[in-house]
Design a protein that fits this description.
Elements lengths: L1 E3 L2 E5 L6 E9 L2 E9 L4 H11 L1 E2 L21 E6 L7 E5 L2 E6 L4 E2 L2 E2 L1 E9 L2 E10 L7 E7 L8 E6 L5 E6 L7 E2 L10 E8 L2 E7 L5 E8 L5 E9 L7 E12 L2 E2 L3 E5 L10 E5 L2 E5 L13 E5 L4 E5 L6 E2 L2 E5 L2 E5 L2 E2 L10 E5 L4 E5 L10 E5 L2 E5 L2 E2 L8 E2 L3 E5 L14 E2 L11 E5 L2 E5 L15 E5 L4 E5 L13 E4 L2 E5 L2 E2 L3 E2 L3 E5 L4 E5 L10 E5 L2 E5 L2 E2 L6 E2 L3 E5 L3
Parallel strand pairs: 4-6, 22-49
Antiparallel strand pairs: 1-2, 1-5, 2-3, 3-4, 6-11, 7-8, 8-21, 9-10, 11-20, 12-17, 12-21, 13-14, 13-20, 14-15, 15-16, 17-18, 18-19, 23-54, 24-25, 25-26, 26-27, 28-31, 29-30, 30-32, 32-33, 34-35, 35-38, 36-37, 38-39, 40-41, 41-42, 42-43, 44-45, 45-48, 46-47, 48-49, 50-51, 51-54, 52-53
Length: 573
């Protein structure tokens, strides 16, 4: 086990083939964020690690500890040379950046020669990457993204490439052994550049972008692809015997297949129709606090709990003040509500923290946030609550002032309130100031997901996802949501090492019914079975292997409807 900065390499007991890349420590536990399998990497990694990395001794983990990496832990990136290359290539991943070195005469004609970093893709999907840099071994050297039928040198494929001097181009081989075709390259452009490939059946389309937001179509082709293909990063130096080095970041692979993972049933209606409430699953029940209850956007302090064991709702103690848009975190029997907007719309933002105890059915005051904040998000990471972003607003005004602050409250060694810290501390700001976002913690990382800019629910929703590493106090951009979504605070949470995002509002004031699942190991999103209907800002939770969603509103044909409906989705795999 070795260390460079805060990244860790954990070698398998065999000493070959499998390594686990770990990006930090939390509560004295080592978290694997990626499993990298490369049959050629064993002795190379051993040599480079022993020469360039320092021992982990003196850190929280002993340098003599042994861990076993397992190739089935996550969807792994694999790496190998394809075709006739004059010198062996290599690949490495550190801090979210893939460094790929490849030789080979070209990826063209009827035979390819290059280095490929890949994983399996079943059915439709896409890959997005930022090409950060590429050594100029030749004007026509190629680095980019590829979807490929097989690992044979003459396999059918579609690719989107950047070159050092000839711009970017979409190219494809329509069938195994066929001659490669290509679109006219775009004018030469400087790195970094974003590339994207999208597969839909037998059609593959290539895109390019300067910023990863505004995309231009580069070309599209029909390619004879199998159901199961290889998707990944390709590098050819165009100078066989010499290695070209490319660096890629923000790599995202997304499978677009919808998994029928939920059978939905309608259960007991909530006592009150409401939306923009706060809530979460705790102690085997779904708790719903406050929210707006009519089309005049009036708010309530009423709170209720749903028990799925007997399919009943019970009124619980009202909130100490009327709130909407508060961030929610659960710690054992305690449910923390932080900030929010006070009273009827448009109410002022609050800095108050309230704690509901599920055992005593009572409220108490927690340490105030450093500033007033509404529509922020929060998650518990280890024994710390992380509160991020949100907006400030004065009473009677609909003007939001977006914030990027990041505050932390230590909860002590247990989930009893007396050992909570008495004040919040600051951490690195979220990269994008926003409100109405979601937050979740998984594998020792905090994720800021989607959100909305100022009060622009119509066209200001975001697909951006950022990941926070507490060991380094830094943020990294991760795979974007499949669509731009806001209103996610009480419908985003982690389950079984993954993150679920339920419903949300997208562009055009459009409510959605989607259920999205994020896998940290592959940095990819998948669509699960949608809800029976669209909703804005319901409350959702996970209880005993079932997804429970209650309330929310929508506006079909511009007419507001607020719901008491509660749905349960089961089973989840």
């Amino acid at each position: 086990m070795f260390r460079r900065s805060t990244d860790y390499i954990v070698r398998s007991k065999t000493g070959r083939g499998s390594i686990c890349l770990v990006e930090g420590l939390e509560d004295r536990k080592l978290f694997c964020s990626l499993l990298h399998v490369d049959p050629t990497l064993g002795p190379i990694a051993s040599q480079s690690v022993s020469e360039a990395w320092q021992s982990l001794a003196g850190d929280d983990l002993s340098a003599t500890q042994t861990m076993t990496a397992s190739a089935t832990a996550v969807q792994a990136w694999q790496s190998r040379d394809i075709g006739n290359v004059g010198v062996q290539g290599s690949s490495a991943l550190s801090g979210g950046v893939h460094t790929v070195r490849g030789s080979g005469a070209d990826i063209f004609g009827t035979a390819d020669a290059f280095r490929y970093v890949y994983q399996k893709l079943e059915g439709d999907g896409q890959i997005v990457v930022r090409t950060d840099s590429f050594t100029n071994t030749h004007d026509w050297a190629k680095s980019g993204v590829m979807i490929r039928n097989s690992l044979a040198f003459d396999s059918a494929h579609a690719s989107m490439f950047m070159t050092p001097a000839q711009g970017s181009s979409f190219q494809y081989r329509s069938g195994n052994g066929n001659v490669t075709q290509f679109t006219q390259p775009a004018a030469a452009s400087s790195f970094p550049r974003w590339l994207k490939l999208v597969r839909s059946g037998s059609t593959v389309t290539g895109f390019r972008s300067a910023d990863g937001v505004n995309w231009g179509k580069a070309g599209s082709a029909t390619v004879a692809l199998n159901q199961s293909v290889f998707i990944g990063l390709a590098v050819s130096s165009h100078m066989n015997g010499s290695l070209g080095t490319a660096k890629f970041s923000s790599v995202s692979v997304q499978a677009n297949n919808t998994s029928s993972t939920f059978a939905w049933s309608t259960v007991a209606d909530a006592p009150l129709a409401r939306f923009e409430a706060q809530g979460a699953a705790a102690s085997g029940k779904l708790y719903v606090f406050g929210g707006f209850y009519n089309a005049n956007i009036q708010a309530t302090a009423r709170s209720d709990a749903y028990n799925p064991e007997n399919n009943t709702w019970t009124r619980i103690a009202d909130m100490p003040e009327v709130l909407t848009h508060a961030a929610v975190v659960v710690d054992g029997p305690n449910i923390y509500l932080m900030g929010g907007f006070v009273g009827n719309h448009p109410g002022p933002s609050s800095n108050r923290v309230w704690v509901y105890n599920t055992q005593s059915n009572s409220w108490s005051r927690g340490p105030d946030l450093p500033e007033d904040r509404g529509a922020g998000a929060a998650a518990r990471l280890g024994r710390n609550i992380h509160f991020i972003a949100g907006a400030s607003r004065v009473a009677g005004s609909q003007q939001y002032r977006d914030k990027a602050d990041h505050w932390v409250l230590n909860l002590g060694s247990s989930n009893t309130r007396p050992d909570d810290a008495t004040s919040w501390s600051t951490r690195a700001n979220v990269p994008q100031a926003r409100n109405h976002l979601g937050a979740a913690a998984v594998n020792g990382r905090l994720y800021a997901i989607g959100g909305q800019l100022i009060g622009s629910e119509d066209d200001g929703n975001l697909s951006r996802v950022d990941m926070y590493n507490p060991a380094t106090n830094t943020w990294t951009t991760r795979a974007a949501l499949p669509l731009k979504l806001g209103h996610l605070a009480s419908t985003t949470f982690s389950v079984n090492g993954k993150i679920l995002v339920i419903t949300g509002v997208t562009q055009g004031l459009t409510e959605t019914a989607g259920v999205l699942e994020y896998s940290p190991g592959t940095n990819s999103w998948k669509r699960l079975e949608s809800l029976p209907g669209t909703r804005r800002a319901p409350v959702a939770g996970w209880i005993d292997g079932k997804l429970i969603v209650s309330g929310g509103d929508n506006r079909p044909n511009g007419v507001e409807t607020i719901y008491r409906t509660t749905w349960i989705g089961s089973p989840y795999r």
